[in-house]
Model the fold of this input.
Amino acid sequence: MSLSEKAQRYAQLLALGALAVLAGCQVKPLYSEGPQGKTATALASIEISEADDRVEQEVRNALIFLTSGGAGEPAKPEYKMALNVTSTVTGVLYDQRVSGDNTTDTAGAGRIVVMGDYNLTRVDTGETVRSGNRSAVALVDFPQQEFAKLRAIKDGEKRAAKELAEIIRADIAAALGR
Done:
């Protein structure tokens, strides 16, 4: 067997191996029809539990918009989602200020973490389709004015709530698409 024949045989084996690897790959769009029907239809039939506070309401509103495509909550839901959201605000950069005999630490920036626990169940059977906990982080600057600081915290919570809703939506879309 000559060198060119060996190279040709090697190239054929390499091509055959590549085809075998590619045959095992499955590329499927997220919103394609799966064994349970269209993912978009399933997403639009999710009822989300009532909110207990402002941040949870932000996440809930964003989830309703993302799952229904802006159509609102379904009249006859096929799925129910129990949602529990908590948020924490922490300072991360502290400036040490000396005023007379007093030394104070004032945060110049902060981190807002919004965490969500959710459980998606079928209405008819009560079977859990997907449950999990996810979190989103927003970074904020804390100005010296107290009202501006409160406004920065609210804006950061809103950004993190939207991001958390997008993460949860992607997670349940993947679960419903199977």
Q: What stands out?
A: The longest strand covers residues 79-99. The chain has one domain: 33-176. The first helix runs from residue 3 to 24. The helical segments are 3-24, 39-44, 54-68, 146-176.
